[in-house]
Amino acid sequence: QVQLVESGGGLVQAGGSLRLSCAASGRTFSNYATGWFRQAPGKEREFVAVINWTGSSTYYTESVKGRFTISRDNAKNEVYLQMNTLKPEDTAVYYCAAGYLPSIATAPKYWGQGTQVTVSS
To answer: Does 26 score more than 90 pLDDT?
Structure first.
């Protein structure tokens, strides 16, 4: 069992940066790929980024490539999402997730509770 708790969300102006963190509990956290998803008001939850269990491979949705960076520290049981050059359309609740590749992109095994990110124009 893996429990995920996100933090780091908030209000930021367009062009600014935020760093989201996800703290994981559970001895087997390092066995899982981890990812970030987001859900904007009135929209379905969408995939943002994923990193494999070693941290050696990452994948991003097109709209955040070059602006967002996913990373992880297995020694600390944490996953991060560095978000730069934020845009108003990045406003959403961001969720941390864990699971197996490749199914994590559509059906993660574990979810966090989410953290709100609001980008003002």
So the answer is: no
